[in-house]
Amino acid sequence: xxxxxxxxxxxxxxxxxxxxxxxxxxxxxxxxxxxxxxxxxxxxxxxxxxxxxxxxxxxxxxxxxxxxxxxxxxxxxxxxxxxxxxxxxxxxxxxxxxxxxxxxxxxxxxxxxxxxxxxxxxxxxxxxxxxxxxxxxxxxxxxxxxxxxxxxxxxxxxxxxxxxxxxx
Length: 168
Hints:
By secondary structure, the chain is α+β, with helices and mostly antiparallel strands. Helices cover 36% and strands 36% of the residues. The model has no long low-confidence stretch (mean pLDDT 85). It holds the Pfam family SnoaL.
């Protein structure tokens, strides 16, 4: 074998190895984006997503909750988070995803969404307006072993509360 052939063969093997690694990384990022979108879909109406299929048992949620008027995010575990989602669904129906975009790097995914929801039940002492409201949010999730370990959420809390009549 010639030296030139060996050089070309080694270069070819290196390219295949690099391409394989890039392809595997892209697949992992796409998988993480799907998991992050499942978390968003929990807020939508008519979903039957079991949170335990997408969240780790030791999950921590950092959400600036609408029910916390003192401001700032609170840490909540999976059970507390599920209760927050259930409380939301008793007051809002026909929750729809209007728009979304995602960016992923490593084990982090950022998802920006715009949602709409019909205010059908009492929320924070406010009577239902029967109006459809819209709000946007950005959610960052950290994923390990195919499950969400931690979430940070920033959203238009005050625009949301104004639309339901909590702020004049």
